[in-house]
Design goal:
129 residues, mainly alpha, 7 helices, globular
Length: 129
């Protein structure tokens, strides 16, 4: 619990992913827009759907080769954690379940939770939520 409560978000290692990882950035922008406007008010040209489409396209490109480091990188895992959380928040239980199953595969390919050390240790906390 302490790892979650005492961390300054701006100094948190994952904060850098917003600026260095395009997929993670679009996932966060999607989350911000989707959670600030009711789903019923989202139009086809809404910023939420725009960033969602970009996030999913970039994520699919990374996951196309599960043997690549990009498929199981911290940024990819953080993106899927973000998508799982926003799906749950928006009540899309099927999408949330799919994202959780994808996380399990990525963590397994990476060597399990015990293999996530350093910055990844904080990410491990988010995966376990």
């Amino acid at each position: 619990m302490e790892i979650c409560l005492k961390e300054d978000p701006v100094r948190a290692p994952w904060f850098g992913s917003l600026f260095s990882d395009e997929t993670c950035l679009h996932a966060m922008l999607f989350t911000t827009y989707a959670c600030s406007n009711p789903v019923s008010e989202q139009r086809q040209d809404s910023p939420a759907l725009y960033h969602c489409a970009i996030t999913l396209r970039l994520l699919r490109e990374r996951l196309a080769d599960l043997e690549s480091q990009a498929a199981t990188s911290d940024g990819t895992i953080m993106t899927v954690v973000t998508l799982a959380g926003v799906s749950e928040f928006l009540g899309d239980r099927d999408a949330a379940k799919n994202h959780r199953e994808g996380l399990l595969k990525m963590v397994t390919l990476r060597g399990g939770l015990q293999a996530m050390t350093g910055y990844s240790q904080r990410l491990r906390t988010k995966v376990c939520r």
